[in-house]
């Protein structure tokens, strides 16, 4: 998805939905009123970031070798590198090095925003900035960022790439819960409110344990202060994810992040991108397509990602779709806060796990009943049922039945 800077008004009507009942019970936390700005907060913590030289980072990435390139965005390329972080004492660490394109003032603004915002935040669901490089020379400005390395790429890669294993239902839920917690932290848990402004699946990175971490803070902005309800700014972002009121008016608030989160919830459910031009016209735009399959309809299951069908909770999926709809209510004030989204997702995760336990229990019970039936028919001499082969394994809870290819391990019969 390409970033854009000017939007045209979209007159498409969006169906309004009432927020879920489980959401409305959660009271949002208030942002601490503080006269400090992000810049002032950054000055207090800038000593935590290491200042790298350009030569250090060029050596770490083998002169920015194309074979080490792991990503590329509108404002620069990202390389995998190896560098010593603790004054050369500890073993080298694997890092991600982002080299911004030399595109003048705009690129510098993105770089500066990332340094300042990531320099003040600290949360398990936000990518950690280790340091930066800022050098000006005869060959132009050099602006680089050094992050912790995320070995499992992005959420986008795992949802849409057929080259990677299918992302299981349970993992999808936990990833979205973690991402929601990261946004809630930005909105409510700092001395200053931060609006992420670019939430999308490609900006959700996954560590070795598939813990999600929000990355790319180049478009982040300070939220409104005092009695103000929004900040006014030129609309920027990625097509398909930005809230319609922000596109039309340039008024930015945390509700805009909530809308974007709802879009990604539908991507998780369907396995489809927000825009897929290769499909038939009525299926190209994800949000228009899913409206044909309401969450409370019998046809709802048709939107679920085919790769996870029969391996998910339909009840939890319906609730996730309702949550996505509530995130994208036309009136921003009627949308839930990210704190409320977090609480709703926790309930969905809990319900999904309970459903899975019941499914496992029923499946195990069915197998046990089948074994009993086979053994009963053998003992009565009915039909041509083969007699079970008894061995020492039987006493350890393992039964083997010839002819049925049936093997049950550690089951109580």
UniProtKB/TrEMBL annotation:
Keywords in alphabetical order, please: ATP-binding, Kinase, Nucleotide-binding, Serine/threonine-protein kinase, Transferase
**Annotated binding of ATP, by residue:** 98
Q: Which Gene3D superfamilies match?
A: Phosphorylase Kinase, domain 1 (3.30.200.20), Transferase(Phosphotransferase) domain 1 (1.10.510.10)
- E.C. code: 2.7.11.1
- Which PROSITE patterns does the record cross-reference, listed alphabetically? PROTEIN_KINASE_ATP, PROTEIN_KINASE_DOM, PROTEIN_KINASE_ST
Q: Which of the seven top EC classes does this enzyme belong to? A: transferase
Provide the reaction this enzyme catalyses: L-threonyl-[protein] + ATP = O-phospho-L-threonyl-[protein] + ADP + H(+); L-seryl-[protein] + ATP = O-phospho-L-seryl-[protein] + ADP + H(+)
One of the entry's Gene Ontology molecular-function terms is: ATP binding
Indicate the segments forming the Protein kinase domain, all copies: 64-349
Highest taxon of the source? Answer: Eukaryota
- A Pfam family it matches: Pkinase
| Family as reported in the entry's similarity comment | Belongs to the protein kinase superfamily.
Report the protein name in the record. non-specific serine/threonine protein kinase
- What organism does the UniProt record list as the source? Heracleum sosnowskyi
> What does the record give as the organism's lineage?
Eukaryota, Viridiplantae, Streptophyta, Embryophyta, Tracheophyta
């Amino acid at each position: 998805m390409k970033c854009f800077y000017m939007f045209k008004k979209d007159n498409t009507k969006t169906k309004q939905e009432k927020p879920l009942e489980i959401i409305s019970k959660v009271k949002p936390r208030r942002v601490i009123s503080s006269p400090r700005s992000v810049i002032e907060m950054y000055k207090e913590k800038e000593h935590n970031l290491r200042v790298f030289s350009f030569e250090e980072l060029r050596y770490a990435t083998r002169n920015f070798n194309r074979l080490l390139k792991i990503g590329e965005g509108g404002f620069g390329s990202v390389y995998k590198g190896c560098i010593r972080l603790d004054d050369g004492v500890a073993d080298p660490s694997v890092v991600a090095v982002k080299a911004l394109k030399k595109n003048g003032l705009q690129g510098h603004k993105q770089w500066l925003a990332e340094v300042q915002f990531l320099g003040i935040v600290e949360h398990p669901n936000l990518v950690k900035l280790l340091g930066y490089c800022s050098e000006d020379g005869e060959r132009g400005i050099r602006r680089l960022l050094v992050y912790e390395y995320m070995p499992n790429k992005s959420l986008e890669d795992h949802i849409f790439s057929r080259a990677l294993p299918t992302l299981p239902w349970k993992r999808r839920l936990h990833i979205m819960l973690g991402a929601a917690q990261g946004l809630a932290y930005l909105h409510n848990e700092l001395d200053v409110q931060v609006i992420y402004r670019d939430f999308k699946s490609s900006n959700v990175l996954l560590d070795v344990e598939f813990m999600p971490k929000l990355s790319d803070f180049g478009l982040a902005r300070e939220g409104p202060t005092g009695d103000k309800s929004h900040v006014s700014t030129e609309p920027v972002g990625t097509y398909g994810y930005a809230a319609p009121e922000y596109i039309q008016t340039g008024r930015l608030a945390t509700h805009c992040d909530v809308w974007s989160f709802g879009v990604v919830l539908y991507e998780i459910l369907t396995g489809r991108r927000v825009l897929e031009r290769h499909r038939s016209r009525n299926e190209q735009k994800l949000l228009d397509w899913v409206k044909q399959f309401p969450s409370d309809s019998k046809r709802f299951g048709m939107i679920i990602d085919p790769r996870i069908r029969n391996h998910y909770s339909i009840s939890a999926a319906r609730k996730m779709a309702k949550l996505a709809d509530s995130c994208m209510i036309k009136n921003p004030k009627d949308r839930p806060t990210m704190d409320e989204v977090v609480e709703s997702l926790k309930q969905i995760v809990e319900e999904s796990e309970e459903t899975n336990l019941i499914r496992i229990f029923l499946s195990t019970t069915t197998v046990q009943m089948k074994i009993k039936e086979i053994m009963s028919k053998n003992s009565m001499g009915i039909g041509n049922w083969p007699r079970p082969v008894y061995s020492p394994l039987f006493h350890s809870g393992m039964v083997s039945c010839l002819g049925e290819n049936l093997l049950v391990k550690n089951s109580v019969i």
